[in-house]
TrEMBL record:
The lineage of its organism: Eukaryota, Metazoa, Chordata, Craniata, Vertebrata. Its main location: other. This is START domain-containing protein 10. Residues 241-261 are annotated as: Disordered. It is found in: Cell projection, Cilium, Flagellum; Cytoplasm; Membrane. Gene3D superfamilies: 3.30.530.20. InterPro entries: STARD10_START (IPR041951), START-like_dom_sf (IPR023393), START_lipid-bd_dom (IPR002913), START_lipid_transfer (IPR051213).
Amino acid sequence: MSVQIPDDSDFSSFKDQCLNLDGWTSRYNKGGVTVWCRDEDSKTVQKIKMKIVCKDVKAETVYDVLHDTSYRKKWDTNMIDTYDIARLTVNADVGYYSWKSPYPLKNRDFVTMRSWLPLGNDYLIINYSVKHPQHPPKKDYVRAVSLLTGYLIQSNGANCSTLYYLTQVDPRGSLPKWVVNRVSQFVAPKAMRKIYKAAVKYPEWKRKHDPGLKPWMFPEQNTLPSIAASELTLQRADSLENIDESGLSEEKTRHSDDDES
């Protein structure tokens, strides 16, 4: 399956999915965060959409936070590791991301092709999973599949913005129902608030850490090795290990310190 770099119509379609509520069910609406869910044909693959209004934060700042992997290590406490692998075009690259699952579930990781587009008052970032020949699945992780994941940031004036996050991921495993519920009721809202808090603190942090370095805005700063789309293939879920974790009970879970609100 060949890899296609998103074009304007793909970004437009993603924006429409973020803004259109037809077929979506609200599962959480509290403290400025809304979470909607949409069950697709497959019961293991859930589509989730979130929205948060970021008062006193510019849209461009939120966009920078979501791109800046150096800063991500400061605020994303569920992340185990992340790094950029190679660039495809001036607005597309390949990267790796791994995160902690609640115990006793296995940790998950992704290799994704990410593409981005600033468009007037909108900023968009979307990704989906790909296979990179030098980054195969690791034995200590379950390689999950992003069918479509991304962000839409809309400017609401000089110092206010709205962030949408939409994700459709195959976790490669039969997960217990409590995990799915926990994601929409706890993990997702917490993640959105964490991005908002990170965006508030970002300008001060960035002033002390390579303030002029923003390769996602200035392609000439990008030092990643180049890769052709033909060297990548689409990551299909059915080619990966599928594990059954549906019998794991919530009582056995061990939460990290960060898990409590």
